[in-house]
Amino acid sequence: MFNKYFEEYKIGETWTSTGRTITESDLVMFSSFSGDWFPLHTDKEYAANTHFEQRIAHGMLILSVTTGLLRFEPGIVVAFYGMDKVRFTNPTFIGDTIYLNATVIDLKEKGQSQGVVTVLQEVKKQTEEVVAVLEMKILMNKHTLE
């Protein structure tokens, strides 16, 4: 998705990623890394007694995994610029396969050599239910002629 120069993007342009299945190991490793051991993610018995009836993936785990589904081209991508309007709309369970649909919704010039591409991301699972929605901003280089 982020593999071309700023001025090559068009508002309305779309892209769909490949999928990735969320595993129990993902939840355990993310808990270890982040320190987030909330029982809804890590305690099978606790989660069974919630309205989800089973463990769910951490929202931040889902955002982290979807970052890995994107293509960031070194030399073109300058930096992750931020996220806005993040919402987790449905649970992601162990065994769900997530992917994302992305649509360019805004392009802002940032000086003579860079610009910010804003993409609406809908993270979906195999049932096509949306599990997360956000606007991601990436600072991109412009193509410069020498």
TrEMBL record:
InterPro entries for this protein: HotDog_dom_sf, MaoC-like_dom, MCH/BMMD
Range of residues in the leader sequence: none
Domain MaoC-like: 16-123
Protein name listed in UniProt: MaoC/PaaZ C-terminal domain-containing protein
Protein species of origin: Niallia oryzisoli
